[in-house]
Amino acid sequence: MEFKEAKNKFIQTWGALGSQWGINKTMAQIHALLMVSPESLSMEDIMEELLISRGNASMNLRALMDWGIVYKEYKSGERKEFFTAEKDLDELAVKIAQERSKREIKPALKVLKDVSSIDTTKSAETKHFVEQTSKLYDFVLKADNMIDKVTEFKDNWIGRLVMKIMK
Amino acid sequence: MEFKEAKNKFIQTWGALGSQWGINKTMAQIHALLMVSPESLSMEDIMEELLISRGNASMNLRALMDWGIVYKEYKSGERKEFFTAEKDLDELAVKIAQERSKREIKPALKVLKDVSSIDTTKSAETKHFVEQTSKLYDFVLKADNMIDKVTEFKDNWIGRLVMKIMK
DNA sequence: AATAACTTTCAATTATTTTTGAAACTTTAA
DNA sequence: TTAAAGTTTCAAAAATAATTGAAAGTTATT
Predict the structure, then answer these.
(1) Which are the contacts of A45, defined by CB distance < 8 A and separation ≥ 6?
(2) pLDDT tens, B64-80?
(3) For all residues of chain B together, what is the average pLDDT?
(4) Distances (CA, A) of B24 to A14, A41, B53, B59
(5) Does residue A141 belong to the interface with chain B, where contact is any CB pair within 8 Å?
């Protein structure tokens, strides 16, 4: 396998993985492309490499910047904007986790809290419902708190110890 | 808010969350419904409650059973099949994680390994590519190993200690 | 072995999401 | 201040994914 083929395979795979996880294909592909580009790329470069339209590139670059995992760069003497990806993978993981927590988990938690707070003096069915949704609330809250803790966690000694134990 | 409204809100929210994470809406809704049902439900019950077709119910129940998070039950005297959800949340989380690992992460890892193994004696661009994809391979492998370890992890003492530290 | 009860399959339809492309907008340089 | 270079927006089109429903397939009962 030579470079061009490997690069394309990587971009396609990353795109497919993204769409299985609720991130749109182009967004994941742009990110993949920027990850393996030693130099920052212009919108033109990206459109050309991925064969996508200007609008598509613009919208997905905006989304990636909103997620905080792609940055704009200005080159002196150049008028256009260049883009580059967050390449520190720990940083990347934390940002993605935080963003998804904020957008998806936090709102779901609110609903779980609400629905698990209904008056339970009624039927057995209601009791079971409240029981289950309360458990779910606790569980999701715990999982979500772990995300919040990861940033600090990966820097302290016991964290590193545990990482080691987990291989 | 009374029971019926709460139940509906829960099912809708869980369905929406599912589709943001690459699980189809109906599949997540059926699971949600079974989670809060004290009794196991027939396909008929599920169709009626979620207003979906027989085919849809059948296919998504099959998928949930493939994931190992919904089980068939037979009631004596009844000819039809009843369904019930895994209600132990730790068990649920582990099964979902394992399933997604098997279906999505493992194949992606294979690709990462392949593309990061190309001949690096060529251009600087190639060197950078191999460097980045190798890092990614190590990172994803580590994350995936953590999933494999969670089952045992949650049962042993240091695991519980760390859980406590993480609040 | 025929029939009734129930489940699965899958081509066609419907719904949802993504992408395009051209117009509107913004910024910079002359 | 104008025109060129570049970017964003968004309605319409295309692509993708989910759903239906009826026919085919199974299994249990008489």
Answers:
(1) none
(2) 999 999 999 999 989 99
(3) 91
(4) 20, 35, 15, 11
(5) no
